[in-house]
């Protein structure tokens, strides 16, 4: 975006901020998504505004991401994703359940908009404090305790699914999806990537070993 011709530095900064937010909130489906494009778009739409809707890994891991998303949706239909990326050659999938336990007949009072005055915000604070007291009481009821236990069970299962996907990525070539091991660039300050022998040779990576093998656990 070309900045408008304005002399006011504050105005120029405002335009830059708007442009940056638009970039963050756009859905950046990878150009090489291929048959996974729609599934990856659905994954990206789970990322809230302001976090940046990118998938920061290569094509070899896309099938793992699509499968993981399908599994998580079965357990937590409204789960929220914050980031999916490669780090130190391993897959990282940062998420939260997107669910909370409250009385379905007593929803949380809506937060006032930015244009609300102080009196409106004060009324909301009082309403919200009263709601929090009712929420605590509801969570002590048999119904509330049952729902809390169910949510905790589903979250634990989801954590295992994410862990399994990340471990599978540690033996899957990030570029082509073949069986792989951790590799590194040969120079000082190496970059790490999980690659099959053919992709590693093409990209000029060498096998990692010894203490480097711990890098996946970070």
Instruction: Give the integer mean of the pLDDT values.
Output: 89
> Could you tell me the number of beta strands?
6
Number of domains: 2
- The number of helical segments is 6
Radius of gyration, in Å, reads 23 Å
Strand content: 5-15%
Structural class determined from secondary elements:
alpha+beta
- With strands numbered from the N-terminus, the spatial order across the biggest sheet is 1-2-3
Low-confidence stretches: 1-7
Please describe the topology of this protein.
Blueprint: H1 9-25, H2 37-44, E1 55-56, H3 62-75, E2 80-87, E3 90-96, H4 118-139, H5 142-169, E4 181-184, E5 192-195, H6 197-203, E6 206-207
Helix pairs in contact: 3-5
């Amino acid at each position: 975006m070309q900045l408008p011709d304005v002399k006011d530095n504050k105005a120029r900064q405002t335009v830059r901020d708007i442009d940056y937010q638009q970039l963050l909130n756009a859905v950046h489906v990878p150009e090489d998504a291929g048959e996974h494009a729609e599934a990856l778009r659905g994954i990206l739409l789970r990322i809230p505004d302001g976090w940046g809707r990118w998938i920061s890994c290569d094509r070899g891991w896309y099938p793992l991401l699509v499968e993981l998303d399908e599994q998580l949706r079965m357990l937590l239909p409204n789960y929220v994703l914050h980031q999916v990326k490669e780090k130190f050659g391993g897959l990282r999938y940062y998420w939260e359940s997107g669910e909370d336990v409250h009385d379905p007949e007593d929803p949380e009072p809506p937060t006032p908009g930015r244009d609300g005055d102080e009196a409106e915000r004060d009324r909301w604070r009082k309403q919200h404090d009263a709601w929090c007291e009712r929420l605590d009481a509801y969570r002590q009821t048999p119904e509330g305790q049952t729902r809390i236990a169910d949510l905790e069970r589903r979250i634990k299962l989801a954590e295992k699914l994410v862990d399994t996907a990340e471990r599978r990525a540690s033996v899957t070539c990030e570029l082509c999806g073949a069986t792989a091991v951790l590799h590194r660039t040969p120079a000082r300050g190496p970059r790490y990537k999980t690659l099959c022998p053919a992709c590693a040779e093409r990209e000029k990576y060498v096998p990692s070993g010894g203490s480097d093998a711990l890098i996946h656990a970070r």
